[in-house]
């Protein structure tokens, strides 16, 4: 009995089929992982080539040498402060 179901096959008959299926699944998994990596690289290259950025992705940080210089005006914050006069 397997899970309450009566079967007519023995472990000797089933075990080779199960091990073969396990090996096949392992090979397929490796193949799919390689395909995922290739597609990821393809997508990244396409994004870089066409300068595509998603809104939720962080903006790449510029190295200090490429950042804004001290002579350029810095963007002000958007906080409004009430001053008493």
The helical percent reads 40-55%
In whole angstroms, the N-to-C terminal distance is: 89 Å
**pLDDT < 50 stretches:** none
Radius of gyration: 30 Å
Number of helices: 1
The computed structural class is mainly alpha
The gross shape turns out to be elongated
Region (Disordered): 50-85
Protein name: Prefoldin subunit 2 like protein
InterPro entries: PFD2, PFD_beta-like, Prefoldin
Family: Belongs to the prefoldin subunit beta family.
Q: Which key features would you list for this structure?
A:
85 residues, mainly alpha, 0% strand, Prefoldin subunit 2 like protein, PFD2, chaperone, PFD_beta-like
Task: Describe this protein's structure.
It is a single chain. This protein is an all-alpha fold. The protein is 46% helix and 0% strand. It contains one helix and no strands. It is elongated and about 90 Å long. It starts with 10 loop residues before the first helix and ends in a 36-residue tail after the last helix. The model has no long low-confidence stretch (mean pLDDT 81).
């Amino acid at each position: 009995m397997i899970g309450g179901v009566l079967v007519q096959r023995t472990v000797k008959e089933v075990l080779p089929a199960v091990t073969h299926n396990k090996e096949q699944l392992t090979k397929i998994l490796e193949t799919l992982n390689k395909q995922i990596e290739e597609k990821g690289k393809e997508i990244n290259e396409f994004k870089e080539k066409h300068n595509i950025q998603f809104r939720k992705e962080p903006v790449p940080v510029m190295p200090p040498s490429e950042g804004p210089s001290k002579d350029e005006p810095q963007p002000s914050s958007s906080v409004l402060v009430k001053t008493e006069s």
